[in-house]
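Human: For the file, kindly provide a plain-text protein record giving the amino acid sequence and the C-alpha cells, at your earliest convenience.
Assistant:
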Amino acid sequence: MRKSFTLILILFSLFFYSCHFDSDSKEGGSSTKGIISISGAFALYPITVKWAEEYKKLHPGIRIDISAGGAGKGMTDALSKMVDIGLVSREIYDEEIKNGAWSIAVTKDAVLPTISALHPQLNEILSKGITKKTLEDIYITGSCKTWAQAGIQSQLHLHTYTRSDAAGAAESWAKYFGRKQEDLKGIGVFGDPGVAQAVQKDPAGIGYNNMIYIYDPQTKKQTNGVRVLPIDFNNNGKIDPEENFYDSMDDIANAIASGKYPSPAARDLYFVSKGKPQNKRVLQFIEWVLTDGQKYVHDAGYINLSKESIDASLEKLK
C-alpha cells in the first residue's frame, strides 16, 4: 500500500512539473522555442525579415511572424499587446510613452523625395533639384501646382502622392517642414511600395519613399523606375557637387551619417513594446539584433547606428 501511495506521489509530481514547464514555455520561460510576433512600419519590414531569417538559423525552434502595415499599426498592435514587437519608423510620442510604450532604436534610414524616371525633363530636374521652400509649397500650402512653378520647363501639372496609412515615413517627411502627417497634401496611397509604384507609373508624379524602396540592396543603385529628387539646400538653382549624393545607396548613407542630408527626414527606426519585454526569447532576439544582427544592416540597405547608440540601446535592455 505504501509503495502504491509513493508511486502515486511520484507520478503526481512528474505531472505537476510537466504542466509547470509547459506553462513556462508559453509565458517565456523557455527561450529556445516559441513564437515572436511582430508588425508595423514598411520601413523596418525588409531588414526585420532578414534578421528573422538569420536568427532562425541559429534558433530553429523559434518562429517569428512578421507583417507590415505602417508605423501606426505597429504602435497600436504593440500597445494593445497584439504583438510582441511593433515596428515604428518615427519618434515616439509623449502620449504613447504615457501609455506604456517602451522603445529601442535598432537601425536608421531616411525618407527621400521621389519622381518618375519617365519624367520628360528628368535630366533638368536632376541638375537643378528642388528647394525645401518649393517642396513645402507642394506638400503643405499646395500653392505649387505645376512643374513650371517648381522651376522646371514643363507644361505638366504636378501629381502629388502621399501616404494614406498612419506612416512613419509620412510623419518624418511632414516633420521636415515642422508639420504632422495630416498636414501633407496629395493623393493618398497605402504603403511604401504603393507610393513607389504610383510615382513610377506617373511621369508628372512626385512622392517620398524610404531608402529601401528606392535603391536595390544588391546593386546599390536606384531602381523600381523612381529617382530621388535632389534637394537644392543652398537655393542657388542647381545641385552642387556637395549636394549630389544620391547616385548610390552608399553615397546617401554617408550623407546621412555625416549630417549632409537633414534630420528629420533621416531618422532612427525602433522596436516598440508595451513596457519592457518580459519574455526571454523576445529580449534575446532584440539583443542579437543589436549585436550580431547589425552585420546585416548595411547590405540590406540601411544605416548602422553609432556605437554610442548601440551601447545606449543595450543598456536599456538590462
Summary: Residues 110-266 form a domain with the D-Maltodextrin-Binding Protein; domain 2 fold (CATH 3.40.190.10). The first helix runs from residue 2 to 27. Confidence is low (pLDDT under 50) at residues 1-29. The CA atoms of residues 37 and 82 lie 8 Å apart.
